[in-house]
Amino acid sequence: MEAKVGDRLVVESNRVGQARKVGEVLEVRGPHGEPPYLVRWSDGHEGLMFPGPDAHVDHAQD
Fold first, then answer.
1. Which of 45, 46, 48, 58 is closest to 10 using CA atoms?
2. Where is the DUF1918 domain (predicted)?
3. Stated pTM of the model
4. H helical segments located in the chain
5. pLDDT tens digit string along 6-35?
6. CA distance 4 to 20
């Protein structure tokens, strides 16, 4: 997985009825755009994220 600042990180829910999580990548701490990522989630919380297989990156438009 590769991301850059401004991309959206989307984590799909693995439970029926639970919404997916969407956040903005604020900082990329791994080499070459790799995790971990500092993410601001849609509810305003921020956290360091090591995305799993249920996550994908929506790349920001330049």
1. 58
2. 1-57
3. 0.87
4. none
5. 999 999 988 888 888 999 999 999 999 999
6. 21
Single out the residue of 1, 6, 3 nearest to residue 62, CA to CA.
6
Burial of 3 (0-12, 13-18, 19+ CB in 10 A): buried
The one-character DSSP state at 3 is -
Tokens of 50: 């090591």
CB atoms < 10 A from the CB of 50, how many?
Answer: 11
What backbone torsions phi and psi does residue 53 show, to the nearest 5 degrees?
A: -70, -10
Q: Is the pLDDT of residue 60 over 80?
A: yes
Q: Are residues 25 and 11 in contact, defined by beta-carbon separation less than 8 angstroms?
A: no
Q: Which amino acid belongs to residue 22?
A: V
Phi/psi of residue 33, nearest 5 degrees: 80, 10
- Across the chain, what does the average pLDDT equal? 93
